[in-house]
């Protein structure tokens, strides 16, 4: 019986704040507030504690018979590479509504969301991905403003070398594996940032 | 075939910011940035866009044979009421590590996390709950600083009328129902805020 591992002691420092958004003072201190266990920006003028927390990325894996829908990115980062429709969850929406909204915005596609397929934590960039398996409802899709191209792919056609994000590659690999094995998600995992190359290899990268 | 409903047009306004945390200016405008579709606080002085997004609450449903572990809250809100160990996901940790950390902090309990049991969106307060089913590893638990009391409950003993949050009640009800039906999660849902009482009933509440 193994206990679930606890976070490492050395969590990343909060992203830099310069001024208090409540009172405008520049007397922000990075310290552990009373009763807390992590460093936060605390305003020495008005006392406001500025908490910073991970953001949620919600998206869909839209399926049409044997094919899946991918979008080619029209924006940075990873312009020109392929992805699933996904983006940041907004205040005021549920995770399912957010995933459907992103699919409409990026692929002009209407879906029926079926289940949570992949849940991936990216602790070093303070993100949590939630990708939902979805049934594409019609073929009237097309690129939204953030996509160059939207199309359906059979498994053998997936451009694995031109995927925008590791989260998306992992989601698709899990999906095709599930189909072969008759298994289902949710697949829960983390992706840690790749360690930087040693200095003597950086020029060669 | 029904399309997953899209979010309502009237999303809540962002929480009030007064000063730009980047440059300290008070010239913050609430407007839709170019290429965006939602209102954000934009600094008219330095151009910084201040995005606001939902926060993730992670927690555990620790199980010991037929019993589940609950904590009685030592802090507001809902001081004195019962809950499962849960709290805000922090920058730098995975969802699973965060759920284990909260369980250690609030109940001094070590767990092996088994699966995602409940995923509940609370769009009106900009939160997403993720509750994990977990196996309690030993009986050396006890109240952390935020708990008055920690104990194990059989289903018949659960203090349903003294639960701190609807998310927790829903998580526990799903758990006991799953056990009777031999079903599993994740159970994905939303909780909308109860509508306010009409004015002529407010005095009676």
What does this structure look like?
The structure is a homodimer of 205-residue chains. The first copy, chain A, has 205 residues and is α+β, with helices and mostly antiparallel strands. Chain A is 16% helix and 32% strand. The first copy, chain A, has helices at 95-107, 166-181, 199-202, and strands spanning 28-31, 40-43, 49-50, 55-64, 67-73, 82-83, 86-88, 111-122, 127-136, 147-153, 187-190. In chain A, strands 4, 5, 6, 7, 8, 9, 10 and 11 form an 8-stranded mixed beta sheet that branches. Chain A has a 3-stranded antiparallel beta sheet with strand order 1-2-3, with no helix packed on it. In chain A, a hairpin with an 8-residue loop joins strand 5 (67-73) and strand 6 (82-83). Chain A starts with 27 loop residues before the first strand and ends with a helix. The model of chain A has no long low-confidence stretch (mean pLDDT 90).
Write a short abstract of this structure:
The first copy, chain A, is an alpha+beta fold and 205 residues long.
The percentage helix of chain A is 10-25%
Q: Could you tell me the radius of gyration of chain A in angstroms?
A: 20 Å
The number of helical runs of chain A is 3
Described by the principal axes of the CA atoms, the overall outline of chain A is elongated
Tally of strands of chain A? 11
User: What's the oligomerization state?
Assistant: homodimer
> Which protein chains make the most extensive interface, counting residues with beta carbons within 8 Å of the other chain's beta carbons?
A-B, 65 and 65 residues
Separation of termini of chain A?
A: 42 Å
Report the mean per-residue pLDDT of chain A as an integer: 90
Helix and strand sequence of chain A: EEEEEEEHEEEHEH
Largest sheet of chain A: 8 strands, mixed
Strand-residue proportion of chain A: 25-35%
The low-pLDDT segments of chain A are none
* Structural class assignment of chain A: alpha+beta
């Amino acid at each position: 019986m193994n206990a679930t591992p606890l976070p490492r002691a050395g969590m990343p420092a909060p992203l830099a704040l310069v001024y208090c958004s409540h009172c405008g003072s520049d007397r922000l201190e990075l310290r552990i507030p009373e009763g807390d266990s992590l460093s936060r920006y605390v305003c020495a003028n008005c006392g406001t504690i500025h908490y910073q927390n991970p953001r949620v990325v919600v998206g869909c894996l839209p399926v049409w018979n044997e094919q899946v829908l991918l979008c080619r990115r029209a924006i940075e980062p990873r312009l020109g590479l392929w992805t699933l429709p996904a983006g940041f969850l907004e205040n005021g929406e549920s995770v399912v509504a957010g995933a459907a909204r992103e699919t409409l915005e990026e692929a002009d596609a209407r879906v029926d969301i079926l289940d949570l397929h992949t849940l991936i934590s990216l602790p070093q960039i303070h993100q949590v991905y939630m990708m939902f398996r979805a049934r594409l409802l019609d073929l009237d899709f097309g690129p939204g403003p953030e996509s160059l191209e939207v199309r359906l792919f059979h498994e053998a056609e997936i451009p694995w070398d031109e995927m925008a994000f590791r989260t998306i590659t992992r989601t698709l690999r899990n999906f095709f594996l599930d189909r072969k094995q008759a298994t289902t998600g949710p697949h829960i995992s983390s992706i840690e940032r790749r360690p930087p190359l040693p200095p003597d290899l950086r020029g060669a990268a």
